[in-house]
Amino acid sequence: MDLSSSVSLAASKLFARPVSGHVSLGKPLRAVLFVLPVAALGAILFLRPGPHAAGSYAAIVLFAFLVGVAVSGVRVAAQWERGVILRLGRFQTVKGPGVLFVVPVLDYVRFVDIRLLALNIPSQKVITKDNVPAEIDGVLFYRVSDAENAVISVQDYQFAISQFSQASLRDVVGGLSLDELLTEREEIQKQIAEVVEERVQAWGVHVDSIRLLDIEMPEDLKRMMSRQASAEREKRANITKAEGDRDAAMNLSQAAATMQKSPGAMQLRTLQTIDGLGPSASNTVVLFPVELLDAMKALGALTRKQPPDEHAGQEC
Question: Is the pTM of this model over 0.70?
Answer without folding.
Answer: no
